[in-house]
Amino acid sequence: MIQMTEFNTSPSPRLPVLAVVGRPNVGKSTLFNRLTGKRKAIVDNLPGVTRDRNYAEAEWEGRRFILIDTGGFEAEAGSALERKIQEQGRLAREEADVILFLFDGKAGLNPLDRDTVRLLRRVNKPVFYAVNKIDSPPKESRLYEFYALGLSEVFPVSAEHGLGMDALMDRIVAAFPVCTHEPPAETGEEMRPLCVAIVGRPNVGKSTLVNRLLGYERAVVDAVPGTTRDALDTPFSLGGEPYILVDTAGIRRKARIVDRIERYSVIRSLGSVDRGDVVVHLLDGPEGVTDQDAQILAYAAARGKGLVLAVNKWDLVAPEHRRSAAYRERVFHKLAFVDFAPLVFISALSGEGVENLNKAIESVARSYQRRIATAPLNQALRGVVRAHPSPLYQGREVKFFYATQTAIRPPTFTIFVSAPKGISPTYQRYLVHGLRTALRLQGAPIRLFWRARREERRRKK
């Protein structure tokens, strides 16, 4: 029998990390969703749905920690993609402070379980074992066969229904190293790190870019379109500032979504656009802008996201077409509605232009959360209006009184005028463009709200 050992709970300067490992389809993603309180990981009965490590912050009885959901563990991986998935699982086990191995109580003991337990015995860190899908007392008899592996303690749980989670998580949390300076919980929208979402069509190089930005293989990379199925969150820093990096599943046309897992991934990707503050949209350099690119960007722009356009595979573009000025003109001819976004040319595979991309992300991030003092804001507004006054409304000039910034992420301004209804959509677009230029808010959308000045309303009454 394996004897219980004293775990190392010495102080650590970061949040503890729990990795959930096990064979495919044992319920790891269901457990991940249970602990995080969100349907963040895709859950389906098909084995191998989770291909990458999926990170999220979770909390148990006031103790915060990082949770990692891994791809299913296989002792012998056949294809190149399967081997890469297994490498992700090994990396997760190396990053973890505590490991939770999940058995399938419905399927019973599998030879791979025995092999995995043998491997985990060599790991010099706390390992807990739980049998999932035990959702009623009579089914607890299924635990006995797992004790044949020489385990001293096996926890019966049902990740789907939450049964047995208290006893398991209490033991896991007790094994965490002590966090010496745990980050404070969010106290407001402005306190959280900005979320950078990497989006684009399938096989455009999103995961390769994520790995390049992070400096290691965070995401599985394969030539097969649609390799990334979940939206994956990873903390990282850029220019000394903290960010959350999201690598999303490729977004395809609805007519081409035939596999239900890919359909879930599309929904999750659009959700990642919603969660993102700065959206980096990858274009395929040799292929150019497609209708699908325009639809994705329209979705992001309508939701007020900071935008960066990156033309990937620039090194594969034919030499006669590798003129950046001409290529830029073609891009914004089709994407005129996001002409405020910086455009950079990169090769995620070789690293060409990635430094310029980093600078563009930093610039857009600064603009996205920048606060403008009232005096320079009104000076900029007067200059824009003076250059091109608003058309008459009901035979009268629309008077602009003053403006004030009422929010960031994105920059939002409330402008007091004599007749809010007199501001046409065309003139509002002109003001947005003029203010973005005057205030140097590169890559950031601007939201304008109109109010009638109080004195004007009282006079009308």
Give a concise summary.
By secondary structure, the chain is an alpha/beta fold.
Helix/strand layout:
Blueprint: E1 17-22, H1 28-36, E2 54-60, E3 63-69, H2 80-95, E4 98-104, H3 111-120, E5 127-132, H4 144-147, E6 155-156, H5 165-174, E7 194-199, H6 206-214, E8 232-238, E9 241-247, H7 260-275, E10 278-284, H8 291-302, E11 306-312, H9 324-334, E12 343-345, H10 354-368, H11 374-387, E13 400-407, E14 412-417, H12 425-439, E15 447-452, H13 454-460
Parallel strand pairs: 1-3, 1-4, 4-5, 5-6, 7-9, 7-10, 10-11, 11-12, 14-15
Antiparallel strand pairs: 2-3, 8-9, 13-14
Helix pairs in contact: 11-12
Structural class: alpha/beta
User: Biggest β-sheet: count, sense, barrel?
Assistant: 6 strands, mixed
Q: Using the CA coordinates, give the radius of gyration.
A: 26 Å
Q: In whole angstroms, how far apart are the ends? A: 86 Å
Strand order of the largest sheet: 2-3-1-4-5-6
Q: What is the string of SSEs from the N terminus onward?
A: EHEEHEHEHEHEHEEHEHEHEHHEEHEH
Quote the average pLDDT: 79
Gross geometry: elongated
Q: How many H/I helices?
A: 13
What is the beta-strand fraction?
A: 15-25%
Proportion of helical residues: 25-40%
Strand runs, count: 15
In the predicted model, the low-confidence regions spanning at least 5 consecutive residues are 1-13, 40-53, 180-187, 218-231, 249-254, 260-267
